[in-house]
Design a protein that fits this description.
This is AraC family transcriptional regulator. By secondary structure, the chain is α+β, with helices and mostly antiparallel strands. It contains twelve helices and twelve strands. The protein is globular.
Length: 283
């Protein structure tokens, strides 16, 4: 159960909830999901979101929108006990009765202070995750929905389609093709040069246009696709970790493990072990 690391993971239709004692950094990355991070104990943790540094301390929450580039910065001394929620936009839209949640819902600012009801909802979810699967029929998804509802009531901006269109990034059919190429060829771990050649662009032009249209680099998009597939395959428990590494184009299992730790803060073996036998799975 990896009690010394205090790792708990719940997987479900909502996405992923991770309770984790950590001091390590996470590389700059981005993803299609909403990301909520709370500090439950230990040292404050510092993050960088879209180039701006934020210190996550007691009574605060870090709210990260889809495709916002973010990283956890290195820290010395005492680790931080963090609860991180990676929420699927469709689940969030269903929970909040919102249409087009991926673009219609936004957190106006990353770092916010929690009020008493939100702190109580956070404690309820943390308590659910802190119990092993065999300790009781705790309904983690209900607790998670309660916390998300409290956060959303105070910190989510609902945007009309007029507002969405007014703030939309430029469109480029070549970037759409590039993203499709990356998803179709993820197993080959294509280089940026390969993707650029496939859509008839130079490497530098692809990088600039991808950043302008998507808000992230082609490599960050590829990394997100690889992490998404890796977590799904590891949760399914059918392929070995070395097989998952091979399928995703890593030349060695050690390279895959390092990549996984850099993005999630735990190893593939820890994710597989705790994700299946730790917190009760919701959904």
């Amino acid at each position: 159960m990896a009690r010394d690391r205090q790792i708990r993971i719940a997987l479900g239709s909502f996405g992923r909830a991770t309770l984790h004692l950590t001091a390590g950094p996470l590389v700059a990355h981005a993803h299609a999901e909403f990301h909520l991070i709370f500090k439950l104990g230990g040292a404050d943790a510092c993050f960088k979101v879209d180039g701006e540094q934020h210190r996550l301390g007691d009574g605060c929450a870090l709210l990260i929108n889809p495709w916002a580039t973010h990283a956890k910065l290195p820290q010395e001394g005492e680790p931080s006990l963090l609860l991180a929620l990676l929420l699927e936009p469709q689940w969030l839209g269903d929970t909040l009765a919102a249409d087009h949640p991926a673009v219609g819902l936004r957190f106006p600012q990353p770092l916010v202070r929690m009020d008493a009801p939100t702190a109580a909802a956070l404690a309820a979810l943390a308590g659910c995750l802190a119990h092993d699967a065999g300790d009781g029929p705790a309904d983690c998804e209900a607790a998670l929905a309660g916390l998300v509802g409290q956060v959303a009531a105070r910190h989510v901006q609902r945007r009309s389609m007029t507002e969405v269109l007014a703030s939309a990034r430029p469109l480029d059919y070549r970037i759409k093709r590039a993203a499709e190429y990356i998803r179709a060829h993820v197993w080959e771990n294509p280089s940026v040069e390969t993707v650029a050649g496939a859509v008839g662009m130079s490497r530098s032009r692809l990088f600039d246009q991808f950043k302008a249209c998507m808000g992230i680099s082609p490599q960050q998009y590829l990394d997100w696709v690889r992490v998404s597939i890796a977590t799904r395959l590891l949760a399914e428990q059918q392929a070995s970790i070395s097989d998952v590494a091979h399928q995703l184009g890593f030349s060695a299992q050690g390279h895959f493990t390092r990549f996984f730790v850099q993005h999630l803060g735990l190893s593939p073996s820890e994710f597989r072990r705790v994700g299946m036998t730790g917190a009760a799975r919701a959904g």
